[in-house]
Structure to design on (64 residues):
């Protein structure tokens, strides 16, 4: 299940990617995280396992 950190819900393996979710797109291992809105191509897909370094990480803004 997804984990909450600050104002964001971080998706775990198998969580469904929704429109408006963000994907981490930094270039290197030690680079600062750079978050972008995910493309519509990924909406409805399952999020990959974020614990594998080669997998992308997804998050969702908590709006309550």
């Amino acid at each position: 299940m997804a984990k909450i950190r600050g104002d964001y819900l971080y998706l775990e393996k198998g969580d469904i990617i929704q429109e408006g979710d963000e994907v981490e797109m930094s270039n290197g291992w030690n680079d600062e995280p750079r978050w972008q809105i995910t493309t519509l191509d990924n909406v409805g897909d399952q999020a990959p396992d974020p614990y594998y370094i080669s997998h992308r990480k997804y998050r969702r803004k908590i709006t309550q």
About this structure: The two ends are 19 Å apart (CA to CA). The longest strand covers residues 58-61. Residues 1-64 form one domain.
